[in-house]
Amino acid sequence: MNNKPKRPDRCAQTNPIIWLILIAVIAAVALSAGLIFLRRESSKVPVKAARPHRTDAIAAKVKKMSTEEKVGQLFVVTPDQLTGLTTVTAGDTTRDRVKQYQPGGLIYFDDNLKDPAQTKKLLADTKQIYADLGLPTPFLAVDEEGGEVARVAHNRAFGVQNVGDMRDVGATGDPAKATAVGNTLGTYLSDLGFNLDFAPDADVLTNPANKIVARRSFGTDAELVKQMSAAEAKALSAHGVIPCLKHFPGHGATTGDTHAGTAATDKTLDQLMQAELVPFNNVNAYAPMIMAGHIATPSITGDDTPACLSKQMVTDVLRGRLNYKGVVITDSLQMGAVTQSTDSGQAAVAAIEAGCDLLLMPKDFPAARSAVLTAVQNGTISEKRLNASVTRILKCKAKLNKTAGLK
C-alpha cells in the first residue's frame, strides 16, 4: 500500500473564470463556422430548380404546339405518300410536304432502300429537314423482323445477315438467341439511320392452321414468346432502335389475313389472357410501343370491329386490364380489314377515339389528317385526348436522345 500524500489536482486548481472564457471562445468559433456553411449552402441553386424534369419539358412543348402540329404527330406515313413519287432521296419536295403536313414519322419499304450509302443519306437528309423546320425528331421506321419480313436484309446490296424466322429462334427455347437477333438487327438498322423497328412479333401461335404469322412467331408457348420478345426488344433498345411489339391482341389464334379482309378470334377475354395477351401484359419496362392489329374479337366486343378501332380493346383491355402506358400504333390503315368497311378519315378518327396514338399509313393521308383535325376542332376528339397522345409520342421520341422532340 502506498501511504504517500496525494498531490493536488492541477485541473482543480485552475481558475473557473479561465474555463468559462475557453468555452465561450469555442462556442463562438463553432457558431461562426456554422453561419459560413449555411451562407454557402443557401447560395447554391438546387439541382432540380436548374434542371426541370423531362416530363415538365415535354408538357411545356405540347402546350406551345399548334393543333395542326399536334395532329401531324399522330401520323406515320411512307415518303411516297408525301411526295406522290417513289422516294429514294429527300430534297425540296420532301421538305415542302413535311412543312405542310408535319407527320410524326415515316416508314420505308423496299423501293425506298437501294443500298447503304443511298439509305444513310435519305434518312440523314430527312432528319435534317425536320431539324431545320424546328419539328420534333421523326420516327424513321422499317419492318425488319427477319425471315420473310426483312426490307433491308432481303436486298443483297446491303450485305447484312438475315436473322431468319423467329419460329426457328423460338424453337431453341433460349432467350439469348432472341437477344442475338435484336443485337444484329439493332446494329445494322441504327447504322443506316433507322430509329424504329416494327418488331418483335409477339404473337402466340395457338392456331396450327394460321399461315400469316406461323414463321414469324416465336412459338406456341405464351411465356416463352414473352421471354423471347422481351429479350429482342431490350437488345434493339440498346442500339437506339425503338422496338414495337405486335400484333395486339394476338394474330396467332386467327386464320384470316387482315391484309385482305376480316380476321377474327372467337376467344373470350379470359381465354386470351391465358395465351395471346401474355406477351403484351406487364411490358412497360421494355416495350415503348405496341402495334394494335386489325384482329376482330366478337366474343368481347360483340362485332367484327378491328381491335385498333375498338375502344373496348385498346382503352379497356390494353391500357386498362394490361395497364399499358406506352405508345399504341395501329397496323397499316391501308389493309383490307379496315378499308372494306370505312374510309380513311373515319378510320383515323375511330382509331384515336379507341385509344391509339399513332396512325400508320392511312390509304388517303391528307383526308385522314383533315378528318382528325376537324374532329379536334369540333370537339369530337377533345384537346385533352389529343394532348395525351402527343405527350406519349414525345416521351417515346425522347428515348432516342436527350433533346428529341424538345426543341
Automatic annotation (TrEMBL):
InterPro entries: GH, Glyco_hydro_3_N, Glyco_hydro_3_N_sf, NagZ_Beta-hexosaminidase
Keyword Aminoacyl-tRNA synthetase: no
Domain of life (superkingdom): Bacteria
Gene3D superfamilies documented for this protein: Glycoside hydrolase, family 3, N-terminal domain
Occurrences of domain Glycoside hydrolase family 3 N-terminal (ranges): 67-395
Family affiliation: Belongs to the glycosyl hydrolase 3 family.
Protein name listed in UniProt: beta-N-acetylhexosaminidase
Coiled-coil boundaries: none
Entry keyword set: Glycosidase, Hydrolase, Membrane, Transmembrane, Transmembrane helix
Transmembrane intervals: 17-38
Metal-binding listed as a keyword: no
E.C. code: 3.2.1.52
Organism lineage: Bacteria, Bacillati, Bacillota, Clostridia, Eubacteriales
GO terms for biological process, alphabetical: carbohydrate metabolic process; peptidoglycan turnover
Organism of origin: Candidatus Pseudoramibacter fermentans
Pfam families named in the record: Glyco_hydro_3
GO molecular function: beta-N-acetylhexosaminidase activity
Enzyme class: hydrolase
Recorded catalytic activity of this chain's protein: Hydrolysis of terminal non-reducing N-acetyl-D-hexosamine residues in N-acetyl-beta-D-hexosaminides
